[in-house]
Amino acid sequence: MEVVKRTDGGQGFTVLPKRGIVERTFAWLIQNRRLIKDYEYTPYSSEAWIDVASIYLMVRRLAES
After folding, report:
1. Which of 12, 16, 19, 37 has its CA 20 to 30 A from that of 26?
2. What does the pLDDT look like over 6-20, one tens digit per residue?
3. Residue 3 domain-assigned (yes or no)
4. Which domain range does residue 63 map to?
């Protein structure tokens, strides 16, 4: 993981590297209603639901092709 910091001289909107990729991934995962709010008690179960959502997304894409 790499942390990208903003430049001090930049004013207004500046495009940060790989930000669009991260936001698009979050948008795909949020399509599952269970991931909209944190209903889980442990971080392990939250991680498991993210894995399930990712697997569902991959299977759905494979079924289309």
Report:
1. 12
2. 777 767 777 777 778
3. no
4. 38-65
